[in-house]
Specification:
- By secondary structure, the protein is mainly α.
- A two-stranded antiparallel sheet has the order 1-2.
- The two termini are 17 Å apart.
Length: 362
């Protein structure tokens, strides 16, 4: 779940249209159940359509194009609907992530659990508004996950393509949830191992942001194993580099750009690869800086503390190490992509997205 997004090379409207059509049907179903459901469905639709660059659907679409898909062919609408399902999966993850992290905002708007709590408060309902907000947002997140399955199942893909997509879709759903569990455990236990942080990046971000979306696109097209392997290698490295860039933006980025307050990951106690790298170095070269970092992570960090943390991250060389890792992974990913045999123009567009995703600035 990233704090920033690269610009995309495929119009998001392609997937927004599919989502709007899907929600039109779901609103009719909600009307028959009750007003609270109507409100919840409206909130979910608004949550999906008011922001985001549709990164995951774009990667899936380009994976399909690179495997020989025809954007003007008769299968294209069904493929677009399948790709759009990734946004529902993403929304489910974000809704739950904001509750876990106690985040108050998302993309410059109140987080969903905050919105539901305010509705409870405004109506003067019984019970605790925060409890209601968290419960409602969890259920809406669950609904988004269920509906992601429904959108894939009803997308119109031929049976053979559905059969190829199924195992990839199942793996992606499991990986993102397991990545979230890894992240939660690392935060609670204070795990400072760099390999743990990278494992979280692999499963919480890389898998469902780049690697598996590309794999889904390839599966729809019935791509050869060589292309699937190359896509996954590319997606794994770019996805991890994408998260490493977000780790840097989470500490050094402009909130107007990232949509979240600077330093939020530190306040939440996230054990990112950036922090793990800084602690390993500081334990040797700056023990006082290491003590300060450990004492600060997971607390209500003010601007003065944040400035000192930034200085420690720079002075220990952690920022430079992470920047070099981003560059190394990006170069390796692009090399895998060039050797993949993917068709143009998908090859060029994927290369462009990779550079934009990993070289974002605040």
């Amino acid at each position: 779940m990233a704090v920033g997004h690269p610009e995309t090379v495929v119009a998001p409207e392609l997937f927004d249209t599919a989502l709007r059509q899907f929600f039109a049907d779901r609103r009719r179903d909600a009307d028959a159940i009750g007003p609270s459901v109507v409100h919840a469905v409206g909130e979910l639709e608004s949550y999906l359509l008011r922001g985001g660059k549709r990164i995951r659907p774009v990667f899936a679409w380009l994976g399909w194009l690179g495997a020989g898909g025809d954007p003007a062919g008769p299968a294209a609408p069904a493929v677009a609907r399948t790709c759009a399902a990734l946004e529902l999966l993403h929304a489910s993850a974000l809704l739950h992530d904001d509750i876990i992290d106690a985040s108050l905002t998302r993309r410059g708007f109140p987080a969903a659990h905050v919105t539901f709590a305010e509705r409870h408060r405004a109506h003067g309902w019984s019970g605790d508004p925060a409890d209601y907000g968290a419960g409602a947002a969890i259920l809406v997140g669950d609904l988004a996950l269920v509906w992601a399955d429904d959108l894939i199942r009803t997308s119109g893909l031929p049976d053979r393509a559905q059969a190829r997509v199924g195992p990839v879709w199942s793996a992606m759903r499991s990986e993102v949830l397991c990545g979230q569990l890894l992240d939660l455990a690392a935060e609670a236990s204070g795990d400072e191992d760099i390999d743990t942080a990278l494992q979280v990046n692999r499963y919480k971000t890389a898998s469902y942001t780049v690697e598996r979306p590309l794999h889904i696109g390839a599966a729809i097209a019935g791509a050869p194993e060589r292309l699937v392997t190359a896509y996954r290698a590319f997606g794994r490295d770019i996805g991890i580099a994408f998260q490493l860039r977000d780790d840097l933006l989470g500490v050094f980025g402009d909130p107007e750009v990232t949509g979240k307050p600077s330093g939020d990951d530190l306040r939440e106690g996230k054990r990112t690869a950036l922090i793990a790298t800084a602690l390993r170095s500081a334990d040797t070269c700056d023990p006082e800086g290491a003590r300060f970092l450990r004492a600060s992570i997971g607390t209500d960090i003010g601007e003065a503390q944040l400035a000192r943390i930034r200085a420690v991250l720079v002075d220990t060389g952690a920022v430079d190490v992470v920047e070099k890792d981003i560059a190394r992974r990006t170069d390796r990913a692009l090399e895998a992509l060039r050797a993949s045999g993917a068709a143009e123009p998908a090859l060029e567009q994927l290369s462009t997205m990779a550079v934009r995703a990993t070289q974002r600035i605040s």
